[in-house]
């Protein structure tokens, strides 16, 4: 089923862009706010803190494409308003609850709300009529998220140190509600200017949520080893069923068939590991931080990520696309190795730069290497890869840290993993274009 709507955004850009990117900023804040302060929230115990952080990313990964289908059916403006409402209510809920399980459920729901937000913003920016407007929109998107992600650790630490940690839940919720009200008033009539699928595949979404949740749960430190192995195995089985279902579908939520084309697969591969390295590093480097000063290297990670787009321009002139991905992964590996030696400032710079290059290169080459008719599906694969990586990063780094009890040891192990990823990229056989 398709919907063809000729109406494009008619709201002036000076109004449209703030209404789109304030929610993105809030999402950026939320992406690092609790990664960096989970150990100071006393309601969270043991691996519940990992589930609390990862619940958000798991729900986002499982429902971001479903959110785009909703946006195609009722319009991105209305979907954005609904997403902000869900984000606000779920985000404020922990302030009224006192159990780690309830907090985690709230985070799952909030992740679904942010899936509606991010898919709506992607649809609205992608439907802008002029290339220059779309380019400006994507630039502001990255900038808004980066500023929010950089602010999250510092804002969280300031509120925790002041003994008013409940504001971590109330303040973003109030801002989201205000923004959502304005979105509903000004943007609810917005619709897409191109054909888009409106089919809902709830069964596949449930399979993705359940399979990915079990798989991530097996990586964490909650429960005995046997239970965790069983959870990982069950997650793999369910995800296999999900992939088989998507492979047979004429209108898949995530077109896993695109991964068989190595030019697309290497981009999704890099997206996943770069995103995981970023969220995992934020969580790991914050684990021992006990002051605002100690969190500064973590906060600066977002700034270094934003520099990746500028560095990509220099690298593209001298290296092949696959070599660019290898360089980005190698920078992450080197940064993690330096983190093992307790040099967090330089480590953060190298990790952030490597992640930023991978994000920028992945965006350019993933969307530039497919036919125009496949751009929407490639974009869905891109957003899913980022969300999957975000959850795996916290689970992987957090699980290793829980097992070793050492930031240095965890950094050293993950440095080896990122180095192996850089080496593996050389087996890409596709031709990447931009």
Structural class: mainly alpha
Please give the order of strands in the largest beta sheet: 1-2
Q: Largest sheet at a glance?
A: 2 strands, antiparallel
Task: Calculate the terminal CA-CA distance, rounded to whole Å.
Answer: 31 Å
Q: Note the total helix count.
A: 15
What percent of residues are in strands?
Answer: under 5%
- Helix-strand string: EHHHHHHEHHHHHHHHH
Attribute tags:
434 residues, mainly alpha, two-stranded antiparallel ribbon, 15 helices, 2 strands, globular, disordered N terminus
Task: Please summarize what this structure is.
It is built from 15 helices and two strands. It has helices at residues 13-33, 48-74, 76-92, 100-126, 131-161, 167-187, 202-219, 225-248, 262-286, 292-306, 308-316, 321-340, 344-368, 375-404, 407-424; strands spanning 2-3, 196-197.
What features would you describe in this structure?
- The chain is mainly α and 434 residues long.
- It contains 15 helices and two strands.
- The chain has helices spanning 13-33, 48-74, 76-92, 100-126, 131-161, 167-187, 202-219, 225-248, 262-286, 292-306, 308-316, 321-340, 344-368, 375-404, 407-424; strands spanning 2-3, 196-197.
